[in-house]
Amino acid sequence: VRGCIALGIPLDTMVDRVLITHRRRRHRVEALNTIEDAIEVQRQKGTAIKSDVVMWRQKGDKFKASFSTKATCALIRVAQHVCDWYKG
């Protein structure tokens, strides 16, 4: 939160809005200047002009453009041992 305040970026701002509207500042803290540099690099690449692509997490922290219910279920499911006493 503190970094967002120092950078002048609201917490709920999307990256494309930051790239379009953010005004560069100089900070005493080097980490904030590094973030300002990264924002500027992305701005120069023209990243804000490109459209957003939805990516879904898959096994092994890989991301794909297609959604898989099976893969999502496997990621959020907590594996449990089989109950011997249950018969169904």
- Low-confidence segments, given as residue ranges, are none
Number of helical regions: 4
- Rg from alpha-carbon coordinates: 21 Å
Given the C-alpha coordinates, what overall shape results? elongated
Percent of residues in beta strands: under 5%
Sequence of strands across the biggest β-sheet: 1-2
Estimated structural class: mainly alpha
**Largest β sheet strand count, sense and barrel closure:** 2 strands, antiparallel
Q: Topology as H/E string?
A: HHHEEH
Instruction: Give the rounded overall mean pLDDT.
Output: 86
Helix coverage percent: 40-55%
The separation of the N and C termini measures 50 Å
The tally of structural domains comes to: 2
Total strand segments: 2
Task: Characterize this entry briefly.
Helices cover 42% and strands 5% of the residues.
Care to describe what's here?
The protein has 88 residues and is mainly α. It is 42% helix and 5% strand. A two-stranded antiparallel ribbon has the order 1-2. Strand 1 and strand 2 form a beta hairpin.
Strand and helix layout:
Blueprint: H1 2-7, H2 15-21, H3 30-45, E1 56-57, E2 63-64, H4 69-76
Antiparallel strand pairs: 1-2
